């Protein structure tokens, strides 16, 4: 039995707090159970050099875990002189997932930075970052439209993400750390609200998985996306 008598196809308790901080263009605190991630959007009227003069915008993402996000304090990466491979991989995933939501020609020469800071980690930090990051992006775009800094909405679709996996032979949705740490298969699914996949990351952790397992993972994720796209 899962914690809180949660069904295999059920999300953890999901909570969204808007305007959690005041300095960013928009901010969202997203909570998947005990996982809590602060996602903020900032906008600059400039683009990277490789886009200069093309009248196109850009989106980039940064991700980090606070030292006390886990039970045992971890050292700040800034103190170690470089980001870990895990951090780099996750922020690249967040960035390319959210870029799939935007028409960069309609955005114009602006750069949007999505910062995802994990305040508390209990599994699913990257999927929470993508879902929360999209909500922060959406709110920032709304403000640009209200102030007439944008004439047309550059958002093409909503984006959300959820984790799935197999634990003790059972297919589970939205794994917490106690489940993820013993999962036989661990997968992250990112989709838009047009029923299109952006990315599927699946890994056999000591065991392999078969074609039917993949179909089961996709099927169980539908419950989550039906709810996440209503946020």
TrEMBL record:
<dbReference type="GO" id="GO:0000049">
    <property type="term" value="F:tRNA binding"/>
</dbReference>
<keyword id="KW-0808">Transferase</keyword>
<protein>
    <recommendedName>
        <fullName>Ribonuclease PH</fullName>
        <ecNumber>2.7.7.56</ecNumber>
    </recommendedName>
</protein>
<feature type="binding site">
    <location>
        <begin position="124"/>
        <end position="126"/>
    </location>
    <ligand>
        <name>phosphate</name>
    </ligand>
</feature>
<dbReference type="Pfam" id="PF03725">
    <property type="entry name" value="RNase_PH_C"/>
</dbReference>
<comment type="similarity">
    <text>Belongs to the RNase PH family.</text>
</comment>
<dbReference type="Pfam" id="PF01138">
    <property type="entry name" value="RNase_PH"/>
</dbReference>
<keyword id="KW-0819">tRNA processing</keyword>
<dbReference type="InterPro" id="IPR001247">
    <property type="entry name" value="ExoRNase_PH_dom1"/>
</dbReference>
<feature type="domain" description="Exoribonuclease phosphorolytic">
    <location>
        <begin position="159"/>
        <end position="223"/>
    </location>
</feature>
<comment type="function">
    <text>Phosphorolytic 3'-5' exoribonuclease that plays an important role in tRNA 3'-end maturation. Removes nucleotide residues following the 3'-CCA terminus of tRNAs; can also add nucleotides to the ends of RNA molecules by using nucleoside diphosphates as substrates, but this may not be physiologically important. Probably plays a role in initiation of 16S rRNA degradation (leading to ribosome degradation) during starvation.</text>
</comment>
<comment type="subunit">
    <text>Homohexameric ring arranged as a trimer of dimers.</text>
</comment>
<dbReference type="GO" id="GO:0008033">
    <property type="term" value="P:tRNA processing"/>
</dbReference>
<feature type="binding site">
    <location>
        <position position="86"/>
    </location>
    <ligand>
        <name>phosphate</name>
    </ligand>
</feature>
<dbReference type="InterPro" id="IPR002381">
    <property type="entry name" value="RNase_PH_bac-type"/>
</dbReference>
<keyword id="KW-0698">rRNA processing</keyword>
<keyword id="KW-0820">tRNA-binding</keyword>
<dbReference type="GO" id="GO:0009022">
    <property type="term" value="F:tRNA nucleotidyltransferase activity"/>
</dbReference>
<dbReference type="GO" id="GO:0016075">
    <property type="term" value="P:rRNA catabolic process"/>
</dbReference>
<feature type="domain" description="Exoribonuclease phosphorolytic">
    <location>
        <begin position="10"/>
        <end position="139"/>
    </location>
</feature>
<dbReference type="InterPro" id="IPR050080">
    <property type="entry name" value="RNase_PH"/>
</dbReference>
<dbReference type="InterPro" id="IPR036345">
    <property type="entry name" value="ExoRNase_PH_dom2_sf"/>
</dbReference>
<keyword id="KW-0694">RNA-binding</keyword>
<dbReference type="GO" id="GO:0031125">
    <property type="term" value="P:rRNA 3'-end processing"/>
</dbReference>
<dbReference type="InterPro" id="IPR018336">
    <property type="entry name" value="RNase_PH_CS"/>
</dbReference>
<dbReference type="InterPro" id="IPR015847">
    <property type="entry name" value="ExoRNase_PH_dom2"/>
</dbReference>
<keyword id="KW-0548">Nucleotidyltransferase</keyword>
<dbReference type="InterPro" id="IPR027408">
    <property type="entry name" value="PNPase/RNase_PH_dom_sf"/>
</dbReference>
<dbReference type="GO" id="GO:0000175">
    <property type="term" value="F:3'-5'-RNA exonuclease activity"/>
</dbReference>
<dbReference type="InterPro" id="IPR020568">
    <property type="entry name" value="Ribosomal_Su5_D2-typ_SF"/>
</dbReference>
